[in-house]
Each structure stands twice: as C-alpha cells, then as structure tokens.
Amino acid sequence: HLRERHPEVVDSFRMPSGFNPTLANRRKYGPSGWISDAHYGLDQGIVVLMIENHRSRLIWDLMRSSPHIRRGLCKAGFSGGWLSQPA
User: Fold this and answer.
1) pLDDT averaged over the chain?
2) Which stretch of DSSP H or E encloses residue 56?
3) Helices 58-65, 44-56: inter-axial angle, 10-degree rounding
4) Contact yes or no for 19/33 (Cβ under 8 A)
5) I want to staple 34 with a disulfide (CB 3.0 to 4.6 A). Which of 7, 20, 54, 86 is the partner?
6) How far is CA 18 from the centre of its chain?
C-alpha cells in the first residue's frame, strides 16, 4: 500500500524508518516531503532474542512454560519432545 501510494519513499526494496508527506514542497524538503535517511532493520530484533536465548535459555524457558503456547502446539498436532514433559 505504501509503495502504491508513495512510491518515492521505497528505495531499493527498503522502507524508511519514517516520512511525512505533509511537508512536501516546503523549503527544506523536496516534492515528497520529509523522508528519513534511516531504514527499518526488521531482522535485528530476532537477533537480540537469539543472543539472549543462547546466553540464558530465557526465551525457550518462557515459551515452554506458557500454557497458551503448549495448548496451541498440541491443538496443531505437535506432540512428544518437551511437550510431553511437565511444564
């Protein structure tokens, strides 16, 4: 939707971390308005989780102790392994 409505903000398949088209044609900005020089790093958040999980196993322990996740996995047909162990 963003690419269709504001194609000028998508640069080489990257999305800016912010933009404001209401500033278009103002003295400091171009016809597209303000576009951030930074880009989203959507893959970086998972890296932090993986590092913490390797360091302390916190993520695995939280996931395995969640009754909602256990119930969902069982309803999806998963069984055995850590699901067969008490929480």
Assistant:
1) 87
2) helix 44-56
3) 90
4) yes
5) 20
6) 15
